[in-house]
Design a protein that fits this description.
The protein has helices at about 10-20, 45-55, 80-90, 125-130, 150-160, 200-205, 250-260, 285-300, 320-330, and strands spanning about 5, 25-30, 35-40, 60-65, 95-100, 115-120, 135, 165, 180-185, 190-195, 210, 240-245, 265, 280, 305-310, 335. With about 325 residues, it is of the alpha/beta class. The protein has 2 domains: about 5-215, DHBP synthase (Alpha-Beta Complex); about 240-335, 3-Layer(aba) Sandwich (Rossmann fold), CATH 3.40.50. The structure holds threonylcarbamoyladenylate and magnesium ion.
């Protein structure tokens, strides 16, 4: 199959929407990362999404809607708190796990009786949902296990020949995937995957915001994941990623002691004046780190890096999302000095 690169002109968005309606798969930009969009109600199309990514069948897809008011068409009940959160954060990078009804096939929800609902704010994704008139299931458009794509070129690299088209909508604004939450009780939510809607932001509307243990810790043998995506190694480039927590001075001496051919460090912008070894930088604050992280992980592979020492980001605010992606890319290998 030839994968067509479409622009974000109205004409081409209509083509993309037609493809979705006809059961094809299209790479679509969102404000978080690029998604691999298909009609969420079409079992055959969804099956081919799993195939194109090489994704385990028990890892559910998020369903994207044009407006949160449509959520009741695909769920059995919506708590008051979900409406309150939607009013504040939708459209935007928030996914709420809700009890699904029969209009969402089991294959889409990875066999679960819940569905993750998200209302994306990106003009292109929003328009394609409207034009197609379908709920769009869209996992990140990377090969399973590899860093998520933040540009049309990344999607092309992973998916060329496997999907009908990719819409080029420029580089993704946030750069990490949406915050995934479940509603625990009348006033309490659990973060299953951290993103740019932070714990601090959710706390303005919820009396309790629980950070699921799997966000920062490896699941123990036999432990059940609240979000199946947490079970799998993720976001990993080919290079071996090692997170190093500590001051800049201790980081420099650690890398110095472990330096060699194929070693490249990933450091903060503000570190570079005094860093004497090979490096790339990933921004100066958490938002920039989120925006750049996945792109840098791909660039490290392109540069032939084999071992990457990463300066650990902070875990406050959006930093928690960056830390969560990195700790998974590192297979939980963290050096504390
Ligand atoms: O920002 C995003 O969310 C992007 C863009 C394309 O919208 N999509 C995305 O999808 O990141 P994906 O499939 O790569 O990640 C979805 C995550 C997985 O970790 C999955 O396990 C979790 O959300 N998830 C989806 N539905 C769920 C459910 N019903 N219950 C628990 N976790 C769920
Ligand atoms: Mg993903």
């Amino acid at each position: 199959m030839d994968t067509v690169l479409l622009s974000d002109s109205n004409n081409e968005l209509e083509k993309a929407a037609d493809l979705i309606r006809n059961g094809e798969i299209v790479g679509i930009p969102t404000e978080t990362v690029y998604g691999l969009g298909a009609d969420a109600s079409n079992e055959d199309a969804v099956r081919r999404v799993f195939e194109a990514k090489g994704r385990p069948a028990d890892n559910p897809l998020i369903v994207h809607l044009a407006d949160f008011s449509q959520a009741k068409e695909y769920t059995t009940s919506i708590p008051e708190l979900a409406y309150k959160l939607a009013e504040r954060f939708c459209p935007g990078p928030l996914t709420m796990v809700l009890p699904k009804n029969d209009r969402i096939p089991m294959i889409t929800s990875g066999g679960l009786d819940t569905v993750g609902i998200r209302v994306p704010s990106h003009r292109v994704m929003h328009r394609i949902i409207e034009l197609s008139g379908r709920p769009i299931a869209a996992p990140s458009a990377n090969t399973s296990g590899y860093p998520s794509p933040t540009s049309a070129e990344h999607v092309m690299r992973d998916m060329n020949g496997k999907i009908a088209a990719v819409v080029d909508g420029g580089s993704s604004e946030f750069g990490v995937e949406s915050t995934v939450i479940s509603i625990e009780s009348r006033n309490s939510v659990r973060i299953l995957r951290p993103g740019c809607i932070t714990k601090e932001m959710l706390s303005e509307l919820c009396s309790e915001v629980i950070i699921d243990r799997a966000i920062l810790h490896e699941l123990e043998a036999g432990q059940k994941a609240a979000s199946p995506g947490m079970k799998y190694k993720h976001y990993s480039p080919k290079a071996d990623i090692i997170m190093v927590e500590g001051s800049l001075e201790s980081f420099i001496s650690y890398v110095g002691a472990h330096n060699g051919e194929g070693v490249c460090s990933l450091i903060f912008d503000t570190d570079k004046e005094c860093f004497p070894y090979r490096y790339m930088t990933y921004g100066k604050d958490s938002s920039e780190q989120a925006h750049l992280l996945f792109q840098r992980l791909r660039e490290l592979d392109d540069a032939g890096a084999e071992k990457v020492y990463v300066r650990a980001p902070e875990t406050e605010g959006v930093g928690l999302a960056v830390y969560n992606r990195l700790i998974r890319a590192a297979g939980f290998e963290v050096i504390r000095i």
